[in-house]
Design brief:
Helices cover 74% and strands 2% of the residues. The chain is mostly helical. It has a single domain, classed as Na+/H+ antiporter like fold, CATH 1.20.1530.20. It has a two-stranded antiparallel sheet.
Length: 448
């Protein structure tokens, strides 16, 4: 074993010189990491299930535990050997393959979420979805922008290059985002697919996240001093949605027979579906939006019935079990909770958490009630919308990579994302219950 360890020992950065790993070493390292990640996520999932938490929440926690916050704190040399990490990105290491693999997992999962997206109920519940979305954006954005002003003037949580407007916009966008893919998994876990409660939450979450990405585009444009970039992001995203849903969706519906054979999705249909998902992810990434946005819209554009059913059945199991945990681990490797080493920083962390809960959960609950949704269902929508999870991790990873936020603020926002997601399931179970209201109308799964 010692001989094997030294043979495939990760590179080290020594006084400016880098000893990179070969392609073979990277592959072997990846297989070992993959085994550790999958098994550890499953163990944490078993523990989390005893507390009523879905597997996705366990994977979020597992990702943080595998990073420097716990594993790296207790066994720093072992953690560095298992997950070699050069923050300067001058060397090929874990980031070289973990990041693209995690992005593939996100894109495939959001494609599945799009395939399950219920456009029919969104139309019926559009007023409620819009009201919940607006409340879930405005209230947390105002609170987040206020905290951004406070942090900018009284802390070092934003780097010097970040301006006051950028700080306020970024933290506001971070507060108003919803864990859209995670929300979908929790709704599926709770058996709320097709119900008014689940659909209003999904619809509002989709609108919230689209707006948050537009805000992020404005922040990045300001940060790069290039406002045409923001116009290109937002305009290109709107054009892509229109093209996918108004042009491609009807064409695919007419050609759905070419994608099936003997009452099931054909191999050609599977390949075409995956290729379209990849093109959508590539296009939105190329115009400055995230790949998950393009993958989700492409999933929503695919024909319902046999095509959507079989695409979900063939893509979802491997994506959820194999690829999605890689993203949580990638985010966890970037998280250093130990940077919050003073009472003041923990007080700021608490302020972010309180503002997030009040701004999102309470505001969405009140908006749902105002549109005539019964109290129990409105409360459930507020609880579900308060989860930040996956999308929060995506947006703050972008902020960290671009230098808009510090590692300390990144850790604060990771804690907020984990806690708001962690609390969603048990509070929902206690206050709302695990099953949807039997009087809530549902629509067959094959509806378009």
């Amino acid at each position: 074993m010692p001989r094997l360890y030294f043979r495939y020992k990760p590179h080290r950065v020594i006084v400016g010189s880098v000893h990179p790993m070969s392609n073979l070493s990277l592959a072997i390292q990846f297989f070992l990491q993959l085994a550790v990640i999958l098994l550890f996520c499953r163990v944490v999932g078993i523990v989390a299930a005893r507390f009523g938490q879905p597997q996705v929440v366990a994977e979020m926690i597992a990702g943080v535990l595998l990073g420097p916050s716990l594993f790296g704190l207790l066994l720093p040399e072992t953690q560095a050997a298992l997950f070699p990490w050069d923050r300067t990105q001058h060397a090929r290491d874990t980031q070289s393959y973990l990041f693209p693999a995690s992005q593939l997992g996100l894109a495939l999962y959001m494609f599945v979420v799009g395939l399950e997206f219920r456009v029919d109920i969104i139309r019926e519940r559009f007023r409620s979805s819009l009201a919940v979305s607006l409340a879930g954006m405005v209230a947390p954005f105002v609170l987040g922008a206020g905290l951004g002003w406070l942090f900018f003037h009284h802390t070092d949580l934003f780097p010097k290059r970040t301006s006051l407007m950028e700080a306020m916009l970024f933290l506001g966008a971070s507060m108003c985002i919803t864990a859209f893919p995670m929300l979908a998994r929790i709704i599926h876990f709770k058996g709320l697919n097709g119900t008014a409660m689940g659909t209003v939450a999904i619809g509002a979450g989709a609108l919230d996240d689209a707006t948050a990405w537009c805000l992020l585009a404005v922040v990045l444009a300001s940060f790069d001093d290039n406002w045409s970039h923001a116009i290109w992001n937002i305009g290109g995203g709107a054009a892509y949605v229109a093209l996918a849903l108004c042009v491609l969706r009807p064409l695919l519906a007419r050609a759905s027979g070419l994608l099936t054979k003997d009452g099931a999705l054909s191999e050609a249909g599977l390949v075409i579906g995956l290729a379209l998902m990849s093109l959508g992810a590539w296009l939105t990434d190329a115009i400055g939006l995230h790949a998950v946005f393009g993958a989700f819209v492409m999933g929503a554009a695919m024909p319902r019935g046999i095509v959507a059913r079989d695409l979900i059945a063939r893509i979802q199991p491997l994506t959820v079990a194999l690829l999605l945990p890689l993203f949580f681990t990638y985010s966890g490797l970037n998280t250093k909770i130990g940077l919050l080493n003073t009472p003041f920083l923990w007080l700021m962390c608490a302020a972010v958490l309180v503002a997030a809960i009040l701004g999102k959960g309470v505001a969405c609950w009140l908006a749902a009630r105002a549109t005539g949704i019964p109290s129990r269902e409105a409360m459930g929508i507020g609880i579900l919308m308060n989860a930040r999870g996956l999308m929060e991790l995506i947006i703050i990873n972008i902020g960290l990579q671009r230098g808009i936020i510090s590692e300390s603020l990144f850790a604060v926002l990771v804690i907020m994302a984990v806690v708001t997601t962690l609390m969603a399931s048990p509070i929902f179970e206690r206050l709302v219950g695990s099953s949807p209201n039997p009087t809530t109308p549902t629509v067959p799964a094959t509806a378009s």
